[in-house]
TrEMBL record, chain A:
Gene3D superfamilies: YVTN repeat-like/Quinoprotein amine dehydrogenase (2.130.10.10). Keywords: Repeat, WD repeat. SUPFAM superfamilies: WD40 repeat-like (SSF50978). The gene is Ppp2r2a. This is Serine/threonine-protein phosphatase 2A 55 kDa regulatory subunit B. PANTHER family: PROTEIN PHOSPHATASE PP2A REGULATORY SUBUNIT B (PTHR11871). Belongs to the phosphatase 2A regulatory subunit B family.
Automatic annotation (TrEMBL), chain B:
InterPro entries: E2F-SERTA_domain_protein, SERTA_dom. The gene is Sertad2. PROSITE patterns: SERTA. This is SRTD2 protein. PANTHER family: CELL DIVISION CYCLE ASSOCIATED PROTEIN 4/SERTA DOMAIN-CONTAINING PROTEIN 2, SERTA DOMAIN-CONTAINING PROTEIN. Pfam families: SERTA (PF06031).
Length: 444, 282
């Protein structure tokens, strides 16, 4: 982390994806996630595909950089579906990917679209059996009368093949659109959350799930709040949180009752009256919630800020960081063009530094210890490896200094919604619309 | 202020609204009621647009509906009574979406005092901003909110999706709560009582066998199903209807609306059966 009082210096490492400015809709990246060791990096896209990158083993001679990420596996996780009863198309877009911790040679991940969660097994094959008696090498059966001797088939090396196969399909449990999945620390169960309900699954059982939260009112006209994100506590397997469109977070204990409609804790910050506007509620809607690695804190992202909450204090966050406060005076325009509904995610580095995206392909980091923050840009213009990224600055008003960008020049089509931090090292993955950038800290 | 690189072409209407939004953001002199009216109109326009979608976004609809409610409440408090200054604009008029800046002028009934019309603070009819704003009544707002939310309920929560997904090792199981006839014996219903009997929102056996369902769901709008064209699912069939004695496999997360679905399906059951038979060729 940012230990020793030295700020991290970020350098461009790699960029994946088409160079084209014309973005194919299916290539829009919709989720990014490192696995538990950081060796694998998965992305999901709007076309329902999952691409997994693997970090090269560190090259001892190249001590100045860590291993590069190269494509390890690509597979079609979800296909578009048509619900004939309702005449609705179900999008194949991958909303979330979550990795299971590795237990054996194979890797497992959960991927979900709006309605269906799938457990995928990714396994390597680098040997194949050769020398069957009854089969030719291509699989055709030999005429038994031509067999004159017997031999024992042996394994011979082959080019590495990485196979992905769906091991479980968890379907038909969500009426509304799934926005989150989270694997429990028991590694046996996981939750899936849609706009109004949260279900608990066992990884081995696909034909049933428990409903543990249901906020659907009897009369839909009374609906004023939806669930926006949910996550299990990293250590406490009976505890989870879910955030809402009203800016609240509820912590629930599954031991208290089967249906966790009554929260154990409610985290909510009273509104600042000086900032009140017509759009106050919309911008308070939480788009992401993430526990720190220790589980002591959680972070929430709403439209303009990132808040850090101490689980022991419900009435206000312990820290608030402004991501792009200069947008507060532009809310009506952002409402008109729907940007105000953009759902930015956020991520932790341990418990010290948090990162989140913004517009114009900018992303921000906040160091909780030094209280310093930085704005960086994911752009192909900065793509010389080992060159330190230049901090960016947005000029909110008044005279624009050199190298600053004025608010009105920001490109609101270039949004960074998804970012991920390597669990152990200072390597980050930042997704622009259809490109994946990998940055790492400068090693000396 | 829409930023560089915005690729869509703006129609006249959209350009006008964009201009209004910019005015809202940049102008300090815009009177509050006017700002409020602008926001309100934008909200109602969005809700109207969402209604036309096959599947409106629930999250956004709720946020926008709340904003309308908030404005509505504010306007109510200001006037001290439900506002009804709608002028020549009926709730059913398409004027929510037809906001051409040049075409609409504000008319007030002569009897309305300045105080009552505080929600629509007019200066001159020639003011282009005001000319493009509509006055909406309290009722209009409420009905806009209700209708989008009701639509969402109906569209979304009829039944779980019917999609068959190929599984690896596991045969996917389907919830039993639609009442369509089972054609294929391959569907292996685990008649097991659920081990986890503690969940509260569930299709418990007695609930579904209780034939007093009709009473509960009288007010559900089934107008969508009144059309002649009833599209049967072409996917593999569902487990048997509730008339059987088999213990039902519970599927807790898929909710009480399953009962409403049964009611709907019952009325079309024979028709669907007939169609299914033709399709399956049995």
């Amino acid at each position: 982390g940012a230990g020793g009082g030295n700020d991290i210096q970020w350098c461009f490492s790699q960029v994946k994806g088409a160079v084209d400015d014309d973005v194919a809709e299916a290539d829009i990246i919709s989720t990014v996630e490192f696995n538990h060791s950081g060796e694998l990096l998965a992305t999901g896209d709007k076309g329902g595909r999952v691409v997994i990158f693997q970090q090269e083993q560190e090259n001892k001679t190249q001590s100045h950089s860590r291993g590069e990420y190269n494509v390890y596996s690509t597979f079609q996780s979800h296909e578009p579906e048509f619900d004939y009863l309702k005449s609705l198309e179900i999008e194949e877009k991958i909303n979330k990917i979550r990795w299971l911790p590795q237990k054996n040679a194979a890797q497992f991940l959960l991927s979900t679209n709006d309605k269906t969660i799938k457990l995928w097994k990714i396994s390597e094959r680098d040997k194949r059996p050769e020398g069957y008696n009854l089969k030719e090498e291509d699989g055709r059966y030999r005429d038994p009368t031509t067999v004159t001797t017997l031999r024992v088939p042996v394994f011979r090396p082959m080019d590495l093949m990485v196979e992905a196969s769906p091991r479980r399909i968890f379907a038909n449990a969500h009426t509304y659109h799934i926005n989150s999945i989270s694997i429990n620390s028991d590694y046996e169960t996981y939750l899936s959350a849609d706009d109004l309900r949260i279900n608990l699954w066992h990884l081995e059982i696909t034909d049933r799930s428990f409903n543990i939260v249901d906020i659907k009112p009897a009369n839909m006209e009374e609906l004023t709040e939806v669930i926006t994100a949910a996550e299990f506590h990293p250590n406490s397997c009976n505890t989870f949180v879910y955030s809402s469109s009203k800016g609240t977070i509820r912590l629930c204990d599954m031991r208290a009752s089967a249906l966790c409609d009554r929260h154990s804790k409610l985290f909510e910050e009273p509104e600042d009256p000086s900032n009140r506007s017509f759009f106050s509620e919309i911008i308070s809607s939480i788009s992401d919630v993430k526990f720190s690695h220790s589980g002591r804190y959680m972070m929430t992202r709403d439209y303009l800020s990132v808040k850090i909450w101490d689980l022991n204090m419900e009435n206000r966050p312990v820290e608030t960081y402004q991501v792009h406060e200069y947008l507060r005076s532009k809310l009506c325009s952002l409402y008109e063009n729907d940007c105000i509904f953009d759902k930015f995610e956020c991520c932790w580095n341990g418990s010290d530094i948090v990162m989140t995206g913004s517009y114009n392909n900018f992303f921000r980091m906040f160091d909780r210890n030094t209280k310093r923050d930085i704005t960086l840009e994911a752009s192909r213009e900065n793509n010389k490896p080992r060159t330190v990224l230049k901090p960016r600055k947005v000029c909110a008003s008044g005279k624009r200094k050199k190298d600053e960008i004025s608010v009105d020049s920001l490109d609101f089509n270039k949004k960074i919604l998804h970012t991920a931090w390597h669990p152990k090292e200072n390597i980050i993955a930042v997704a622009t619309t259809n490109n994946l950038y990998i940055f790492q800290d400068k090693m000396n | 202020m829409l930023g560089r690189g915005l690729k869509r072409k703006l129609s006249d209407y959209e350009e006008n609204v964009a201009g209004l939004s910019s005015a809202f953001d940049s102008s300090r002199n815009l009177p509050y009621p006017l700002k409020r009216q602008l926001v309100l109109n934008m909200c109602l326009t969005k809700l109207q647009t969402y209604k036309m979608l096959v599947e409106p976004n629930l999250h956004r609809s709720v946020l926008i509906a709340n904003t309308v409610r908030q404005i509505q409440e504010e306007m109510r408090q200001e006037s001290g009574q439900p506002i009804n200054v709608c002028t020549g604009i009926t709730p059913s008029s398409p004027s929510y979406t037809g906001m051409e800046s040049s075409g609409i002028s504000l008319q007030l009934p002569s009897g309305i005092s300045q105080q009552e019309s505080s929600c629509c603070d007019l200066r001159s009819a020639e003011d282009p901003i005001e000319n493009s704003l509509l006055i909406v009544s309290d009722d209009d707002m409420s009905s806009a909110i209700s209708s989008i939310l009701k639509d969402l309920d109906f569209v979304e929560d009829i039944s779980p999706p019917t999609c068959l997904v190929p599984s690896g090792d596991d045969q996917p199981k389907f919830p039993e709560n639609t009442g369509l006839k089972l054609e294929d014996d391959r569907q292996d219903l685990k008649g097991a009582e659920c081990v986890f009997g503690s969940f509260e929102i569930s299709n418990s056996t007695s609930y579904l066998k209780d034939l007093a369902i009709d009473d509960i769901f009288e007010d559900i709008d089934t107008s969508m199903y009144d059309s002649d064209f009833c599209c049967p699912p072409l996917m593999p069939p569902r487990p048997p209807p509730i008339a059987t004695e088999e213990p039902l496999k519970t599927f807790p997360s898929c909710n009480s609306s399953s009962a409403s679905n049964i009611q709907i399906c019952r009325t079309d059951l024979s028709e669907l059966d007939h169609i299914m038979e033709i399709l399956v060729g049995s």
